[in-house]
Amino acid sequence: MLKHIHHIAIICSDYKKSKKFYTEVLGLTIITETFREARNSYKLDLALNGEYRIELFSFPNPPERTSRPEACGLRHLAFATDDIEAAVKQLNQKGVKTELIRVDALTGKRFTFFADPDELPLELYEI
After folding, report:
1. Under 8 Å CB-to-CB from 81, ≥6 apart: which residues?
2. Positions of the chain with pLDDT under 70
3. Separation CA 36–CA 58 (nearest Å)
4. Gap between the Cα atoms of 74 and 107, Å rounded
5. Which residues belong to CATH 3.10.180.10 in the chain?
6. For the domain with range 64-127, which CATH number is right: 3.40.50.2300, 3.40.50.790, 3.40.50.150, 3.10.180.10?
7. Which residue from 70, 85, 92, 99 lies 20 to 30 Å from 2 (Cα-Cα)?
8. Where is the VOC domain (predicted)?
9. Rounded Cα gap, residues 121 and 32, in angstroms
10. Residue 120: Cβ within 10 Å count
């Protein structure tokens, strides 16, 4: 029945700031950017390594949501990397604070967390 995950939708509070973060800091590429006048809202379709992955939305005055990794609901969005130390260094050089690199007790893989401009929890996971 299910084939794969089609996309992840994120609603941001500051469209320009989040667009810059996801494209310039994380390096996702823009597929399509649409302004929906009736909703006073942007929809930005983003790809990672050529594959459609994230829809970034802006809405006027979106309600706040608890976003810590342990809050009820979607926990976090994880990005795979081959070299976690290099990825952390790149993020830090772009002004993104990351937690200390930890080791997953179940898999033995290294990972760390950081946040987007709205403090949504994001993870780097070394594969």
Report:
1. 87, 124, 125, 126, 127
2. 2, 66-74
3. 10
4. 21
5. 1-63, 64-127
6. 3.10.180.10
7. 70
8. 4-127
9. 25
10. 19
